[in-house]
Amino acid sequence: MPDDTFATQGDEVPLMVPLPTFEPRKYQLEMLEESLRRNIVIALDTGAGKTHIAVLRMKHEMERESRKVCASSLLAMFPRASVVG
Predict the structure, then answer these.
(1) Rounded CA separation 39/46 (Å)
(2) pLDDT value at residue 38
(3) What is the pLDDT of residues 29-76, one digit of tens each?
(4) Residue 73 in contact with residue 66, Cβ under 8 Å?
(5) Whole-angstrom distance, CA of residue 51 vs CA of residue 24
(6) Sign of the alpha-carbon dihedral angle for 48, 54, 59, 64
(7) How far apart are CA 73 and CA 58, in angstroms?
(8) What gap in Å lies between CA 40 and CA 36, rounded to an integer?
(9) What is the rounded radius of gyration, in angstroms, for the C-alpha atoms of the chain?
(10) What is the pTM of this model?
């Protein structure tokens, strides 16, 4: 089964396919900013962009101090029911 992540031509080294970009919504940026001030739990409906907020936070942390993030950080995401239930 072919791997759609890479584009190859014959025996050449695989090339990464560009990832899609997204424009964060205002509330996603607000959640990101609040997460930079203090530890928070983000509980939003399915499809509201929780993963996008997490990606923005990870990107921020990697740009701020990539060595520390790679060596020791763990970001955990849980379904709301398992945290609140």
Answers:
(1) 21
(2) 93
(3) 999 999 999 989 999 999 999 999 998 988 888 888 766 655 444 455
(4) no
(5) 11
(6) positive
(7) 10
(8) 9
(9) 17
(10) 0.59
